[in-house]
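[Q] Does anyone have a clean structure-token version of this?
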Amino acid sequence: MTGTTKRPYSSQVVDGLEKAAARAMLHAVGFSEADFDKPQVGIASTWSNLTPCNVHINELAEAAAIGAEDADAKAITFNTITVSDGISMGSPGMRYSLVSREVIADSIETVVAGQGFDGFVAIGGCDKNMPGCAIAMARLNRPSVFVYGGTIQPGKDRRDVVSVFEAVGQYASGNLSELALKDIEATSIPGPGSCGGMYTANTMASAIEALGLSLPNSSAQEAVSPQKRQDCLAAGEAVVKLIEADIKPSDILSRSAFENAITVTIALEGSTNAVLHLLAIAHAANIPLSIDDFTEIGKRVPVLADMRPAGKYAMSELIAIGGIQPLMKTLLDAGLLHGDCLTVTGKTLAENLADVAPYPEDQHIIRPLSDPIKKDSHLVVLKGNLAPDGAVAKITGHEGLTFSGAARCFHGEESALAAILDGTVKPGEVVVVRYEGPKGGPGMREMLSPTSAINGRGLATEVALVTDGRFSGGSHGFVIGHVTPEAFEGGPIALIEDGDQIEIDADNHEINIVVSDDELKARKARWQAPAPYTERGVLAKYAKLVSSASKGAVTD
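[A] Here you go.
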């Protein structure tokens, strides 16, 4: 047995008489003698039965392994973790959600590099699986393909998980009976797949496809469908071709590719989490990218998709009219995408899109460029004396472009949610939820429970929410997150007092406290830093290592 250029890593593990012990152990897990001469392809499965997003992924991993072996490679499947945002939302467990992105990336890197795989397929279903997989792909820089686990089918009356969160607010306001709430709870999540709107999972699947790391249309398939199984078979075959051609993520992840991902995210009215995750993937790929790039790109890219949470339609309905490929073709033809970017097909983006048919003429999900939902980006980076290093707002236009109100401050999410549900929060106020940043949480929890309670109580246009935490892709309304510097580090958000006037101006990209500089300096002098998170374990390590949200909340 001798190494070849098609086995640059596995040959170091299994070739030569001195590697007899390694081969002996691999015989015990199913290797034949012939397998040692084949490229080894890892299949990173994020299967778990703790969430519908991932409950089916082992079947997809099996299909990817079959695809790789049909292409004359040897497939080896391994697992990594998942944490369900939807289940942990509003609880202390949500602190582990963003942390799990780093654990997933670290674990895939550890197994692929430790075992000497020549390439790999990574399959993700829930929000942090996907960027975690993409970060690992960028770090390892070995031939690899990402597969999205697929979206869930709509529940009864087109319901989804956000229907349940908002029903809690409706019940609290007396507009929904307990029996109706129970019915919504029981019928909104019908089976496997990721949350059904243009929430974080579908946003990141679309962004990763636009980056070129997944096969065309991987982002727009239902979890339970023949198309998704075929996508996995094709991914296994594709990674073997990438090994043969020596095409690596560094050949794909250019600055232009990230601009494509941002453009598609904006056109789809995607989640604010895309800002955090694309910054982190770019960091792993050594591509310079900043939150200001989202502003610059956003000036020329319109919002075209009438998708939930702010819009009407679910991902399954977008799939039914062709997915995101016709949208990308429209953007490419308009000069808004870089068509020369290489993808995991071995072809350029323009070549992949060459024969894509347009959407049906009678569809209403994707608007034409001549009649956008919003002429520029809904992802608005705000700066000012409240967020000197930036904050990220999701301003679709439905909620207006400016908001001014008196601050009502809360130390943590739970107290804010209780005040929203019991009616303490009044129209015209700005809810300030602080000490929820990457270091201060620690873990930068998502605020879907408070924002859904605001919407459920009918206050979406009358109350704003500002936080150094972040938002679920299911959040909508006048919401501003990722405020940096965070409160834990003494950022201005820590200095706000109840009753301070807060002014938010999306047109001018500003967020300010109407307080003098001298007064802010005096408050800063009186401010006392909270004790750091001192318990041992993953949260303590994370709090010590994590960067600012404006830099992607990375740990390396």
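[Q] Thanks! Anything notable?
[A] The domain at 379-551 is CATH 3.50.30.80 (Glucose Oxidase; domain 1).
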